[in-house]
Design goal:
Blueprint lengths: L1 H7 L6 H63 L3 H25 L2 H44 L10 H14 L2 H23 L1 H32 L4 H39 L5 H12 L7 H17 L3 H34 L3 H15 L3 H22 L2
Length: 399
């Protein structure tokens, strides 16, 4: 009876209850939508974080790869660093000449080739000239010295001076002692060993020379484009880039022109002095003196001092007062006139053109010579001046 009553009873839902159920379902859908949005946002944020981490890691990876690449490139070009630096300096100095020739020929390759051939001639000709002159002089001195030592007549005596006879006998006795002979043999072996080492390095030097010539040609031809690319890669403002380029040019011109002009003046003054004091072939020795003035730690004394001493000894041994006075005069002239030119003119030229304190030039030249060899005369002051330029930029932009 109760079961049939329950079965026959119909459940009726009113409008308010239906609206409540629909509102509940709508809340469920809204909750699900918000949950989906939150989930999507969380996933998107996580993806963004992953992307940022990846980008950050990519930057460090690129930086690490760049450092490794720079290190490997340095190892590759290290044997040719001197050749590369030399080619940069020579190309910069001769670039105005290349521009002038290119205006005449209208052909970049031909203009660069002409200037490059001029560089080869200017480098090889003095080397051959000096090598030929010195070889003949050394062979003459060696032959005469060997003959005099063998005869016991070290000083050629053409006078009746007892003092010279006694000096000659004293030197002959010293030269004949075993210790002296052993020392001479040791010095000779050392010279031969040095020459052997130099001969073994000739292939490397020739290779470096060809690399330098090759780079000079392309730096002359494509120098303008190279400078634009380098300036584009430098992360500095345009006026700072121009300041760095200007400083590079002024220091390079100052050091190169300072050494060349000073050597040229010393060569001309030296030729005049050698002619006045009666040295044979004054023009030849003047050219050698000019070239010696451009070589660090060599300078003009390597020419005028031995010539003056030999002339002084010749005057004393031949009892010729005029020759002895010529030798003494050449020594005084070389010490007071020729050598003082280097101390007076060179700092003036370099200081006026580059506007750098002489101390910076001195430290740069000495440090550059020890680090890079002969080309360090230019590279040393250049590096120090560029460093000071970057310090000025840092003071303006950072401090």
């Amino acid at each position: 009876m109760l079961a049939s009553l329950a079965t026959n009873t119909k459940v009726r839902v009113g409008p308010s209850q239906l609206l409540a159920k629909l509102a509940c379902i709508s809340d469920i859908f809204c909750f699900a939508k918000k949950s989906l949005e939150l989930t999507t946002f969380a996933i998107s944020k996580e993806v963004d974080n992953i992307r940022k981490i990846k980008e950050e890691f990519s930057k460090y990876f690129i930086l690490l790869f760049f450092i490794i690449a720079v290190f490997l490139v340095f190892l590759i070009i290290r044997p040719f660093i001197i050749a590369i630096l030399t080619s940069i300096i020579i190309s910069y100095i001769l670039y105005p000449l290349y521009i002038w020739i290119n205006k005449k020929t209208k052909k970049k390759n031909l203009s660069a080739f002409i200037v490059t051939m001029l560089v080869i001639i200017l480098i090889i000709s003095p080397i051959l000239f000096i090598a030929n002159s010195l070889t003949r002089e050394v062979m003459t001195v060696y032959t005469n010295s060997k003959q005099r030592i063998a005869e016991g007549n070290i000083i050629a005596i053409e006078s009746d001076s007892n003092i010279l006879y006694e000096l000659n006998s004293f030197l002959a006795n010293i030269a004949g002692k075993p210790q002296i002979i052993s020392s001479i043999d040791s010095i000779t072996n050392s010279i031969i060993s040095s020459l052997s080492n130099f001969i073994f390095t000739i292939p490397k030097r020739i290779l470096g020379f060809f690399v330098m010539i090759f780079l000079i040609f392309f730096m002359l031809r494509d120098g303008g484009l190279m400078v634009k690319k380098i300036k584009y890669l430098i992360p500095l403002k345009n006026h700072y880039q121009n300041k760095i380029v200007k400083k590079f040019g002024s220091v390079t011109r100052a050091v190169v022109y300072g050494h060349f002009i000073t050597a040229l003046i010393q060569g001309m003054v030296g030729v005049l002095g050698l002619y006045i004091f009666g040295v044979k072939s004054p023009l030849v020795w003047g050219i050698i003196l000019l070239i010696a003035c451009m070589i660090p730690f060599v300078g003009s004394p390597v020419v005028w001092f031995p010539l003056g001493v030999l002339k002084l000894i010749e005057g004393l041994t031949t009892n010729s007062t005029s020759v002895a006075l010529s030798g003494a005069g050449l020594l005084i002239y070389g010490f007071i006139v020729i050598s003082s030119i280097d101390n007076l003119i060179k700092p003036k030229i370099i200081g006026d053109i580059a506007r750098i304190h002489p101390t910076i030039i001195l430290i740069g030249v000495l440090g550059g010579l020890l680090m890079f060899g002969v080309i360090g005369i230019v590279v040393g002051p250049l590096i120090l001046s560029l460093f000071l330029t970057f310090v000025e930029i840092y003071k303006i932009e950072i401090i």
